[in-house]
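Q: How would the structure tokens look for this protein?
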Amino acid sequence: MIDLLMIVGPTAVGKTKLSIELAKKFNGEIINSDSMQFYRGLDIGTAKVKQSETSGVKHHLLDILEPTEEFSVAEYQSLVRTKIEEIKKNNKLPIVVGGSGLYLSSIIYDYKFFGDKRNDELVEEYNELPLEQLAKILIETKPKLAAKCDLSNRRRVLRALEKNEDQIQDTVYPYYESAVIIGLKTERSLLYQMIDKRVEGMLKAGLIQEVRLLFDSGVNSQCIKAIGYKELYQYFLGEITLEDAIALIKRNSRRYAKRQMTWFKNKMNVNWFETNFNDFDITVNEVIESIKKEVNS
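A: Here is the predicted structure in token form.
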């Protein structure tokens, strides 16, 4: 038997749709692991599932934070593991879904987090340095920490620079022995087309108005670093045109998808399936058969 099912993959590849179908088939409940879907009011830009799309499947860890709140991977690790045990006690299958690699890895591997205190002097010292340079400094000075850090996330790179090398374990062991990780992927050019299509859909659904509400409310916290929000903030500040903002959202989404695939391929043991966008039921059935084999093995 499996005690945990995870669905991973890049943005716009069909994870949400697949998770709902699998939850219906295997008596499951879904746990969000997209770091920006934790926030209330960040709905359109994060592609958060709508209540009308859930097919009655219970979802957890959506809208658990105000936009002004901060949230760490360590806090998520504790919260999500508690939620997994609650679902299992109710004889349901926990199904974790998301594209945030470090959050997902923190669930299934026995990561230990230390040194949560923020070093404001260090943040100020590195404030003007680009992310690429910060990542290079981390790799050169603290390679062990760099290997376990999301180098695409400025805040996490800064946090890693604050820590000592001996604050992290060299070996990371599996936390759930019977976890199955399902990944969706597709050919890169097709994925990029789907990403551009998704962005256009978000704009039609009211993304600009959603971000404007946050901007006008004075929100300037961790959550507005998300793709789709930071670019529109630049537009509202008069730094770029709307056309430039939209182009950046598409470009940054494509780049993020590439980084996601690199993380999943290098740091997680994933069973990969090609998404059939023309007939998604084919993909669903292939995944179901694969899971059945795991259950019966």
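Residues 242-267 form the longest helix (26 residues).

The CA atoms of residues 11 and 180 lie 20 Å apart.

Upvote if useful.
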